[in-house]
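Reading a protein record of the kind used here takes only a little practice. To see the layout at work, look at the sequence and tokens printed below.
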Amino acid sequence: MGKPTGFIEIQRQKHPSRPVEERVHDWHEVYIPYELGDIQQQGARCMDCGIPFCHQGCPLGNLIPDWNDLVYRDRWRGAIDRLHATNNFPEFTGRLCPAPCEGACVLGINQDPVTIKAVEVSIIDRAFDEGWVTATPPAMRTWKKVAVVGSGPAGLAAADQLNRAGHSVTVFEKSDRIGGLLRYGIPEFKMEKRVLERRLRLLEQEGIVFRSGVDIGRDVQVDRLRRDFDAILLAAGAGNPRDLTIPGRELQGVHFAMDYLTLQNRRCEGDTVPEGAAISAKGRNVVIIGGGDTGADCLGTAHRQGARSVYQLELMAMPPHDRADDNPWPLWPHVFRVSAAHEEGGERLYGVSTQRFEADRNGRVARLHAVRVQAEPVEGRMQFVRVPDSEFEIETDLVLLAMGFTGPERGPLLDDLGVRLTERGTVWRDEQWMTSVPGVFTAGDMQRGQSLIVWAIAEGRSAAKGIDRYLMGDSALPAPLR
């Protein structure tokens, strides 16, 4: 390594961000670039650990020590080559991935881990600024045609890989714009859509065809798709939201988180949202049910819309600040985390189970009734048990359900294809990423269930290799997963 003692001499530096009082009044990204010398020093903290557990922590198998060292040595062109060798879209993961690689960093055994995610996004942003990331269409075409259904990170990664192999790829997206959750699920303050558009322009220049506003199974029949293409990849995500079936769920003002986030992203795109369809936190007392990333996205959005107050409720107990004995390194650390949205305000309540919603005279939600719960073993299984005399109420006129997703949406696409489903309702696949229907493959949340962006990209790459092998008899495409 360039600086063997760097991890001893240099402390982890938090990613610089814009002041809270500034950023809550706009939709621009929260984080700003490191100074050049600072990010090189952060790269120098990557130690000569012998066995880089960050490799196994990253589903993509990113060559993390290599590009950390190259950044420290000011060899940025080499760094982006190493980064793109395993990751199609580091500008997405560098902004949105929770960084399981950092949880597996050897330095994290007894110190703060290396700022891997920050180094990653610094490399790709520098590469774009320098003009090193350019369109590179394949030199030859196989004339095999592949349809990719879904334009989220899994679909885009697979499309990129298959296009590099020389296949003719068409990506179908039922929304009016390409990007899937990257477009409408991720708030602008986490990733400005110019970042997405920049990459999409490159993919188009390289020969990928995008068709938005096309719902396969409705606008285009599945039989036609199978006739027109040599292979199909299902990468339409897991968009079925988990609901809360309690009294008052039907009241006005109780919404799924993704409906709320999508509308705000449309506003940021310049779309006009009709008054009757608008969901706004302006001047409202907001309750977000769900303590994960989607809940935090709702929290940051509510701040920017001018919410009067915001509570975020989580069923689980508050995580410890340090690793528990049953959560040792290099497992993903289940510890208390503070996102940029949490820095901006709001109150987080843990160990809370919502019991019912109460309406005002106009039929709008006005109050939430909840109890405290704690996890206890009941007949050999952990269950949430009500804490006696712990009932409480929260006044609210906007409730956002951010409790995750249960699997892919059911409809003509899956029904007409007749693909086999797993017990969890996801699409079944074999070791080559093929479904039960020959020539039809799947990747990402559609077969895995709700997961991380880095898993989606990794699975898109792996499915692309399976498709390439199916079409050509063998494949030289790199892939992290079998």
The radius of gyration is 23 Å. The mean pLDDT is 96. The CA atoms of residues 221 and 227 lie 10 Å apart.
